[in-house]
Amino acid sequence: MAFKTLVSFLTLLAVVRAAPSVVTCPDGNKASNAACCPLFALRDDLQANLFDGVCGEDTHEILRLSFHDAIAFSPSLKRQGKPAGGGADGSMLLFPNVEPNFAANNGISDSVDALTPFLASHPEVTAGDLIQF
């Protein structure tokens, strides 16, 4: 009987400890990880000042930008020791006079120009996180 009680107690303890913890961010939002707290302010800023609260053409263009930022990675070139790109690294925002000028990236300059001010106003968010967010 004591063994069953001990096993039940240990099982309950394991379940309680495995439950995800919640962090309360400085702005009152809750997240599973404190590193996510800056994303709430970014979300609100993007929705209010870029997307005007709607999922329209600007949203489509930013999604296209996220694809182009991420697609430029080649594992096979990396294995050969050649430059392989960095994947979803925000290079479109970090090098706005280089990356958007490649022919494959035609048409993303407007999205780069639209997101660049958000990078400056949210310095705790990386360029890669901003594009992929």
Q: What descriptive keywords fit this protein?
A:
extended, single chain, 133 residues
What does this structure look like?
It comes from Sphaerobolus stellatus (strain SS14). Ca(2+) binds at residues 69, 87, 89, 91. InterPro entries: Haem_peroxidase, Haem_peroxidase_sf, Ligninase, Peroxidases_AS. The structure is a single chain. The N and C termini lie far apart (53 Å). With 133 residues, this protein is mainly α. It has one domain (38-132): Peroxidase, domain 1 (Orthogonal Bundle). A two-stranded antiparallel ribbon has the order 1-2. 55% of the residues lie in helices and 3% in strands.
Q: What is this entry, summarized?
A:
The chain is mainly alpha-helical and 133 residues long. 55% of the residues lie in helices and 3% in strands.
